[in-house]
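Researcher: Let's do a round of design. I'm pasting the structure tokens now; please hold your answer until I've finished.
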């Protein structure tokens, strides 16, 4: 597989001037509105309870014992080994910690480095929309052309024929996200098999963003790398932020065949060089105990999902119950609104709740126009307060 990291500073600069930041702008606007209006913020996806204190202690211990200078570029050996053990324990995937794992500054950097390292200007990348907001900007920075495949309400299932039709001779990569933000859809084994067939037929690289791998509710998360013929063409990305509720630490990783990892490392070297040293041995320990952290988190989130979805339904929204992530999506039309962006802008001021409109994450704006995303990685009382405030809406 030919990979290239060739790119000039001039190219990068020109690309940077036309980045689409609408999603990011909306997050900033909604966070500002939340503060200004004293709203309950169900917008941005970060948990309001930190991960285990013993993992926090492990960071302090690492600092005290001298893990304060640059870590190796690919990550400290303990963490790379723990990531490899995790992939094997949960999925039976074998990766060599020395050549097939790279630690990154959050999944965000893994996505950035993978796209910059693996895609040449003019290449096409098939990507599911609605997009996680960094995808569009990073595809632009890489000079790639995005070929969206739209997941549509109410089920957000993969339209396999449209997926096939999006592939052209210029396609180099499929950029996947499962469990999927913002829809909460989890790609089924059959959907992933269909994607794998196309990837193999057209010799495509797959970059699979699986940051919500442990946050599924009664459905199986299938890493596409486990499907026949996929291990040597798939780069899998995950993050300690989501699995262990330490989003602020920004520790992520990518695993896969050595050539894809090396190309990702090649770009990462010039993005951050290396990632936060004291966090890495701590996250290694968390990964080795992952079940004890993610099992109760999953149960907590399942309860909060049910609380939020039931409440939103009672208020009158059409609710699309998610199988994974910590986001639920609603259609706002039953309440007499038709535009999610306008709805969210007025919601903060009228009832004091902040949510995120889907439409900023689509090329096909109409597909997302009436949809709104609500985060449920919050405590029971915060969700109860949001629902109480939202109950005023039924009279709109
Ligand atoms: C789909 C998806 N990918 C990546 C990320 C970013 O992960 P990190 O905070 O580890 O950079 C997020 C965070 O919201 C996400 O939802």
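Researcher: That's everything. Go ahead.
Model: Designed sequence:
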């Amino acid at each position: 597989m030919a990979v290239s990291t060739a790119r000039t500073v001039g190219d990068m600069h020109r690309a940077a001037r036309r980045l689409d930041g609408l999603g990011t702008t909306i997050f900033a606007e909604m966070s500002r509105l939340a503060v200004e209006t004293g709203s309950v913020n169900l917008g941005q996806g970060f948990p309001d309870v930190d991960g285990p204190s013993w993992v926090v202690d492990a960071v302090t211990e690492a600092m005290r014992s001298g893990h304060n200078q640059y870590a190796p570029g690919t990550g400290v050996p303990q963490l790379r080994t723990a990531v490899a053990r995790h992939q094997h324990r949960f999925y039976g995937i074998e990766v060599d910690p020395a050549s097939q794992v790279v630690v990154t500054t959050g999944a965000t950097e893994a996505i950035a480095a993978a796209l910059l390292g693996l895609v040449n200007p003019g290449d096409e990348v098939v990507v599911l929309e609605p997009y996680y907001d960094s995808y569009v900007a990073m595809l632009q920075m890489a000079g790639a052309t995005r070929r969206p495949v739209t997941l549509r309400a109410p089920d957000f299932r993969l339209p396999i024929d449209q997926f096939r039709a999006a592939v052209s001779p210029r396609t180099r990569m499929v950029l996947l996200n499962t469990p999927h933000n913002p829809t909460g859809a989890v790609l089924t084994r059959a959907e992933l098999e269909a994607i794998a067939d196309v990837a193999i037929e057209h010799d495509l690289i797959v970059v699979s963003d699986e940051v919500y791998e442990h946050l599924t509710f009664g459905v199986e998360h299938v890493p596409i790398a486990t499907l026949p013929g996929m291990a040597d063409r798939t780069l899998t990305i995950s993050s300690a932020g989501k699995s262990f509720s330490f989003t602020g630490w920004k520790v992520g990783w990518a695993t896969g065949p050595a050539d894809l990892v090396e190309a990702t490392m090649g770009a990462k070297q010039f993005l951050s060089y290396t990632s936060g040293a004291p966090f890495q041995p701590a996250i290694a320990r968390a990964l080795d105990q992952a079940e004890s952290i993610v099992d109760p988190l999953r149960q907590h989130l399942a309860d909060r999902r049910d609380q939020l979805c039931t409440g939103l339904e009672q208020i009158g929204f059409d609710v699309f119950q998610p199988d994974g992530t910590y986001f639920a999506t609603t259609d706002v039309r039953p309440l007499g609104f038709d535009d999610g962006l306008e709805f969210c802008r007025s919601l903060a001021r009228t009832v004091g709740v902040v949510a995120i409109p889907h439409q900023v994450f689509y090329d096909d704006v109409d597909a997302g126009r009436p949809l709104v995303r609500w985060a449920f990685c919050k405590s029971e009382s915060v969700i109860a307060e949001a629902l109480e405030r939202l109950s005023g809406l039924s009279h709109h």
